[in-house]
Amino acid sequence: MTEETLLRVENLYKHFPIFKGFIQRQVGAVHAVDGVSFTVKRGETLGLVGESGCGKSTTGRTILQLYRPTAGHVFFEDVDLASIKGEDLRRMRRKMQMIFQDPYASLNPRMTVGEIVGEPLIVHNSASGKEVNERVAELLDLVRLNPSFASRYPHEFSGGQRQRVGVARALALQPSFIVCDEPISALDVSIQAQVVNLLEDLQKQFGLTYLFIAHDLSMVRHISDRVAVMYLGIIVELAARDELYTDPRHPYTQALLSAVPIPDPTVEESRKRTILEGDVPSPVNPPSGCRFRTRCPIAKEICAETQPEFREIAPGHFVACYFA
């Protein structure tokens, strides 16, 4: 990992409009991502965690411009992706790829594995004819699949094998940055470790940079260098992996980590779990002030008035909480 910043996200917003009635009048918006800022260094893995519906996947897709942001900037190699389009964006796309969550939905059932993995090469004119087949065989070998599988269809593979096909497709154009959108959550536990180990090996081999989105906190701890915790469209805490897991400062992070089982019966018995009250508020109408205050055990009046600043409380440790 170098100190060079590869990706810089500044005040990123993504709101999905809600339309109603015959003339489709906009009556509101889903605040999926609401002012997110962070950086990713070249060669590092930034883990992004939070419960379902907090905006993790939307953040990943908006960074890659699969969703165009409502506001904010995404600087990739100092180019603002939010301000370019057409051919300029297409050229940048070669350097950024995505591994999707569901290996059953992200592969076209009508295409063979060879066509799926080779498609990016043809679309971006980086190979043609025989070269495509050679490169596909190389890529399949790289993700530990038999190159002779190129003529098979996705339905002939297991979930873990399909996810490897997804990884091969993401690597086809030799990108420097990959968004891993919960790449293991749809897989069996026994297969998850294999896919994560594969991602780590590929990172070492090609110097890849990952944004690793996940629910599984123990897996994020295993693979990430730094971890960002997201709640209802905003990042509430960001720190180096070990620091976040040993010294979480935000009440939401503390609650999340208290739910992770510890494989030591004596420690497990003596530790205190933080059970959060109530449900996650709706992103259509988020609470005033601090987003987490409606479920926070230490909330005070000030929390309802203004949103706490995302501030650095220790070197490299950022928290959005008045009482951290």
Describe the structure.
- The protein is α/β, with parallel strands linked by helices and 324 residues long.
- It has a domain at 5-95 and 209-319: P-loop containing nucleotide triphosphate hydrolases (Rossmann fold), CATH 3.40.50.300.
- Helices cover 31% and strands 25% of the residues.
- It is built from eleven helices and twelve strands.
- The chain has helices spanning 56-63, 87-93, 113-123, 130-142, 159-171, 189-206, 217-223, 241-246, 251-258, 265-270, 301-305; strands spanning 5-20, 25-41, 45-49, 71-76, 79-80, 96-99, 177-181, 209-214, 226-231, 234-240, 311-314, 317-319.
- The strands form two sheets. It has an eight-stranded mixed β-sheet with strand order 6-7-8-3-9-10-12-11, sandwiched between helices. A four-stranded antiparallel β-sheet has the order 2-1-4-5.
- Helix 6 (189-206) links the parallel strand 7 (177-181) and strand 8 (209-214).
- Helix 3 (113-123) crosses helix 4 (130-142), helix 3 packs parallel to helix 5 (159-171) and helix 5 runs parallel beside helix 6 (189-206).
- The longest helix has 18 residues, at 189-206.
- It is globular, with a radius of gyration of 21 Å.
- The model has no long low-confidence stretch (mean pLDDT 91).
Low-confidence stretches: none
Report the helical percentage: 25-40%
**In terms of structural class, how would the helical and strand content be classed?**
alpha/beta
| Mean pLDDT figure | 91
CATH domain class name of the domain at 5-95 and 209-319: Alpha Beta
CATH fold-level assignment of the domain at 5-95 and 209-319: Rossmann fold
Radius of gyration: 21 Å
CATH superfamily of the domain at 5-95 and 209-319: P-loop containing nucleotide triphosphate hydrolases
> In percent, how much strand structure appears in the residues?
25-35%
> Count of DSSP helices?
11
Q: Order of helices and strands, N to C?
A: EEEHEEHEHHHEHEHEEHHHHEE
According to DSSP, the number of beta strands is 12
- How does CATH name the architecture of the domain at 5-95 and 209-319? 3-Layer(aba) Sandwich
Shape estimate: globular
N-C termini distance: 29 Å
Write out the strand line-up for the largest beta sheet, numbering strands in chain order. 6-7-8-3-9-10-12-11
The biggest beta sheet reads: 8 strands, mixed
